[in-house]
């Protein structure tokens, strides 16, 4: 049987929420949760606002500490990996490329930035990698010379995807990366991500409230409610036969939104 790329065991997160009667109190963002991600798989986390998806994404990307639990990447403890090793295994794409891309850097510089870890690579080699990745995400070599404000929103999201790909990671976490896009751009980005998955053998973790994309892209889904897993399973099975009332409500609400758009 294939070994998991990522194993999360009893992971929890509490944020300090001040003092009550001189005792420190905490808000629980994630109850102890466990799951695995396998090569070439897409796992989606769905839930209402505040269900803990961003917190989980940030912990997995190493941007936030956890309160308890274990994270294993290819069998190695997350904290045993240095920054470069971690970035070449797992990278994140954020919701808004307008704020996540430094406006003072040209696209080429933004894409070269993650490559600074490869100190033995020459300038020419780095340029070649940048051009190759630009092509992979459907951008032209010339786009490399532009600043983020000179390209469209959809193209900026492609740059954000390209940036995540620079160190050839095995896992990409998308934290609502498709949410700010209109439906046609979202469809283009979904297709791009699926194409990249096929060509590069990537695994995805999708944090999303857009059940349409979740249904289209993910193999398995986990439903989070206030930091707790209430349901999980193969995406098609959960959609066809949701077990939990909360999941049923999320699916019904999504159907209503689609009907209103038609
Ligand atoms: N830095 C923080 N300090 C205190 N509480 C936080 C912090 N970050 C998140 N939380 C709390 O943790 C809970 C989960 O938030 P999180 O942002 O992970 O949810 P989410 O599912 O991503 O929702 P959204 O889609 O609205 O961002 C919320 O109750 C939130 O208020």
Automatic annotation (TrEMBL):
<feature type="domain" description="ABC transporter">
    <location>
        <begin position="6"/>
        <end position="251"/>
    </location>
</feature>
<dbReference type="InterPro" id="IPR017871">
    <property type="entry name" value="ABC_transporter-like_CS"/>
</dbReference>
<dbReference type="InterPro" id="IPR027417">
    <property type="entry name" value="P-loop_NTPase"/>
</dbReference>
<dbReference type="GO" id="GO:0005524">
    <property type="term" value="F:ATP binding"/>
</dbReference>
<keyword id="KW-0813">Transport</keyword>
<keyword id="KW-0547">Nucleotide-binding</keyword>
<protein>
    <submittedName>
        <fullName>Cationic peptide transport system ATP-binding protein</fullName>
    </submittedName>
</protein>
<dbReference type="Pfam" id="PF00005">
    <property type="entry name" value="ABC_tran"/>
</dbReference>
<dbReference type="InterPro" id="IPR050319">
    <property type="entry name" value="ABC_transp_ATP-bind"/>
</dbReference>
<dbReference type="InterPro" id="IPR003439">
    <property type="entry name" value="ABC_transporter-like_ATP-bd"/>
</dbReference>
<keyword id="KW-0067">ATP-binding</keyword>
<dbReference type="GO" id="GO:0016887">
    <property type="term" value="F:ATP hydrolysis activity"/>
</dbReference>
<dbReference type="GO" id="GO:0055085">
    <property type="term" value="P:transmembrane transport"/>
</dbReference>
<dbReference type="InterPro" id="IPR003593">
    <property type="entry name" value="AAA+_ATPase"/>
</dbReference>
């Amino acid at each position: 049987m294939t070994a998991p790329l990522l194993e999360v065991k009893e992971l929890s997160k509490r944020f300090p929420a001040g003092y009550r009667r001189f005792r420190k109190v905490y808000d629980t963002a994630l109850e102890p949760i466990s799951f695995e991600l396998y090569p070439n798989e897409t796992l989606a986390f769905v839930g209402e606002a505040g269900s803990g998806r961003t917190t989980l994404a940030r912990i997995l990307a190493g941007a936030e500490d956890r309160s308890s639990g274990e994270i294993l990447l290819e069998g190695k403890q997350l904290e045993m990996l240095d920054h470069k090793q971690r970035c070449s295994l797992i990278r994140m794409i954020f919701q808004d490329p307008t704020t996540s891309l430094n406006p003072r850097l040209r696209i080429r510089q933004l894409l070269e930035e993650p490559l600074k870890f490869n100190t033995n690579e020459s300038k020419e080699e780095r340029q070649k990698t940048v051009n190759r990745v630009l092509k992979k995400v459907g951008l032209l070599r010339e786009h490399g010379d532009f600043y983020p404000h000179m390209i469209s929103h959809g193209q900026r999201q492609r740059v954000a995807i390209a940036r995540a790909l620079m160190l050839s990671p095995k896992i990409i976490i998308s934290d609502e990366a498709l949410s700010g896009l209109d439906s046609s751009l979202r469809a283009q980005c979904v297709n791009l991500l699926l194409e990249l998955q096929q060509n590069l053998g990537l695994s995805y973790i999708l944090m999303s409230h857009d059940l349409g994309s979740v249904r289209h892209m993910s193999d398995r889904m986990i439903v989070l409610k206030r930091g707790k897993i209430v349901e999980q399973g193969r995406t098609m099975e959960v959609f066809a036969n949701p077990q939990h009332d909360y999941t049923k409500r999320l699916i019904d609400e999504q159907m209503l939104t689609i009907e209103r758009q038609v």
